[in-house]
User: Fold this.
Amino acid sequence: QVQLVESGGGLVQTGGSLRLSCAASGSISSNTAMGWYRQAPGKQRELVATIEKTGRTRYADSVKGRCTISSDNGKNTVHLQMNSLKPDDTAVYYCNAGARRSFVGIVPGDYWGQGTQVTVSS
Assistant:
């Protein structure tokens, strides 16, 4: 059974940085990606970034250039470095395992973490 635990969220001022981490345990299907999603109050959950086993990364346009997703296979951990944070980045950030590419885009996997709160003050 796959378990995902996020950490690293917190309160930061506009322009600040945070580094989120997701510790994964259990067997994750091959040929899938790890990713970060976020959900702000009153909004739908949206994709932030994904990383494939090849190391290929993808980013939402809203965070491209400000965020970097990386993995530490030795520790089964995925990180999201977020810089130049804006109030619009305020959301609960969720780690996801098992994402796949489909004809409509990236489809999240069935495994989610509990979420970590990121709050960016104006």
Notes: The mean pLDDT is 93. The CA atoms of residues 17 and 46 lie 20 Å apart. The first strand starts at residue 3 and ends at 7.
